[in-house]
DNA sequence: ATTGAGATTGGTAACGTTGTCAATACAAAT
DNA sequence: ATTTGTATTGACAACGTTACCAATCTCAAT
């Protein structure tokens, strides 16, 4: 597969004398730039890194030589020496749920503003895979890790403890973060949703979920929702959790089924956006008026942040 | 901001004697594992890499020591030595358009099956940013690069020419790829769409786009669509390209506006899924029957692949 | 002129790994 | 017993960069 790389290492001694760099087999290094500029390697390094206290003369010589040679710094070497990088490990469970691309988009835009690069790992909600992914990403000495959810396996926590980099856990804040958590208080949000529905006068609520509730966060939302409804005296009239993957189509199908079986339902709480969108489609195409005939609710977001807890030894 | 990392480097000389690794300040290296296992560093390296010709005795000693110390290989050092990595640079213009998360999902799943990691860069459709992103990602010695579209700037092409890694350009195949292209033949697809509509009997087609047609691919689709319609004798009746960002809401609004102004339109071709979904919503909520009153079409995908052209010097 | 405090440059030695070349062990073939 | 071959292990030197000391050099104050 990766053959062909054995490219003839032979006689490439000819210097680039022209202006445009020819295809160079050997990588252009600091040494090459230094030689061409007639300065030391370390000086080139400093110019490239914008270190303070560089004379204009030196800077000029170096940038000229670097441009001429088409020099690209080798961060791998730099990272080895400094034991840091500009990489941030980002571990997400999936890209199918619409929320994760959005989250990733946000992560990327903030990171890139700080000169950092996200390295992506996707676990497919599989704990073993998550361990592998984290191990893989940690081997690149990232400066930080972003994980999804608060309940990583002990193996992962142990592995993270070997490093001193900050860990941010996203999507959930109801629990104990390793360092910091940013996300949704799912239980609180679901209770607020229940309160909202009841306060609005709905009395016969139903719930629709999908895909065996893989992200445990959706299970937490459902349970909190259910519990709060019961507390308030208006328990769930119906609930259907489809084994199918969450999607607009699933939302259409399950909504149709549920409303057919339970004509008295007056509001439906959906596990996520896709399903709710499907519900909306079903109602629109069936002449069911929303929210007059049936109310639809996808989620109440109540984002909060747990501040970074410094990782100090218990004193 | 990134303070606090200056953590006391002091007296942590105590060996890990317990079973659970304590927070170790120093990184565990091959050397540590080797010492503990009573073998050479290179042997540890070989065991970790599953090199052939290793005795079971050695393998056992090494894995035992590695587990005990919680060793994680340092790929940065490995990458420096071997001048290769398991990273693949992935450069996308955006995460907002639903297609890119899907593409990224596909990329990640295939890559991870081969032990590769995507490193992500997002350009926001900005050529300067694309150059920066590519430079940044190349500095990590990826084994390959995935770019979006076929029209990168010359600066980028020159930079890529410095390396010998394969470049895959996605989303478009109508043009000359650097090495290989995988994507949609946009012009062909749009012409087929035009044919399809006319063959189905539609006679008064309209077009809806958004966001100033930022990805030039959508402009290509529109132009090809328009041209083909004219060829067939049924030119566009109306077109509206919203300055707003493409979204379901924009789709609703623009569809409403267009249908109000042009009651005779019998089919609408949308620049993308989001807009079409908005159009669908508008029709459903306005009692317009699809496809009886108006037909809606988002895209005809006609994926093709240009095979890898080996990067040989002209002979 | 002399001194001293920056500012500016360079030399050297790592960082943790792996390719290359040897060295050893051990079995099979003579 | 000797040779040959193969399986297994090790020593050493890089990979390209940067941290850590020096070594100059400049310029103003003594």
Structural write-up:
The structure is a homodimer of 315-residue chains. The first copy, chain A, contains 11 helices and 10 strands. With 315 residues, chain A is α/β, with parallel strands linked by helices. In chain A, strands 2-1-3-4-5-10 form a 6-stranded mixed sheet. A 4-stranded parallel sheet of chain A has the order 7-6-8-9, with helices on both faces. In chain A, β3 (144-148), α7 and β4 form a beta-alpha-beta unit. Residues 1-24 and 300-315 of chain A have low confidence and may be disordered. At the A-B interface, α4, α5, β2, α6 and α7 of A face α4, α5, β2, α6 and α7 of B. The structure holds a DNA duplex (30 and 30 nucleotides).
Summarize the topology.
Two copies of one chain form a homodimer.
Chain A: H1 30-37, H2 41-48, H3 56-69, H4 75-82, E1 87-92, H5 99-113, E2 117-122, H6 127-138, E3 144-148, H7 154-161, E4 167-172, E5 180-184, H8 186-199, E6 205-209, H9 216-232, E7 238-241, H10 248-261, E8 267-270, H11 273-285, E9 295-297, E10 303-306
Helix pairs in contact in A: 1-2, 1-3, 2-3, 6-7, 8-9, 10-11
Chain A binds a DNA duplex (30 and 30 nucleotides) through residues 27, 29-31, 39-43, 45-46, 49, 52-55, 58, 73-83.
């Amino acid at each position: 597969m990766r053959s062909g790389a054995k490219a003839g290492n032979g006689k490439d001694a000819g210097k680039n004398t022209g202006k445009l760099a020819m295809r160079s087999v050997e990588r252009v290094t600091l040494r090459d730039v230094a030689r061409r500029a007639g300065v030391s390697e370390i000086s080139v390094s400093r110019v490239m890194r914008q270190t303070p206290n560089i004379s204009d003369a030196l800077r000029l010589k170096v940038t000229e030589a670097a441009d001429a040679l088409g020099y690209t710094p080798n961060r791998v070497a730099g990272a080895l020496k400094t034991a840091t990088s500009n990489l941030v490990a980002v571990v997400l469970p999936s890209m199918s749920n619409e929320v994760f691309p959005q989250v990733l988009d946000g992560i990327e835009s903030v990171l890139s503003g700080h000169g950092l690069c996200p390295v992506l790992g996707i676990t497919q909600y599989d704990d073993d895979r998550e361990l592998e992914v984290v191990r893989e990403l940690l081997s690149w000495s990232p400066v930080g890790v972003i994980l999804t959810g608060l309940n990583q396996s002990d193996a992962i926590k142990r592995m993270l403890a070997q490093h001193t980099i900050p860990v941010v856990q996203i999507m959930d804040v109801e629990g104990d973060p390793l360092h910091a958590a940013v996300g949704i208080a799912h239980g609180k949000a679901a209770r607020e949703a229940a309160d909202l529905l009841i306060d609005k006068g709905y009395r016969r609520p139903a719930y629709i979920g999908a895909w065996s509730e893989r992200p445990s966060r959706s299970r937490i939302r459902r349970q909190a929702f259910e519990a709060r409804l019961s507390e308030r005296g208006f328990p769930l009239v119906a609930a259907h959790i489809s084994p199918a993957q969450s999607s607009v189509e699933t939302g259409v199908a399950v909504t149709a089924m549920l409303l057919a079986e339970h004509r008295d339902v007056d509001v439906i709480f959906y596990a996520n956006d896709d399903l709710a969108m499907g519900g909306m489609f079903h109602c629109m195409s069936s002449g069911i008026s929303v929210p007059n005939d049936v109310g639809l609710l996808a989620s109440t977001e109540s984002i909060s942040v747990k501040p970074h807890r410094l990782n100090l030894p218990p004193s």
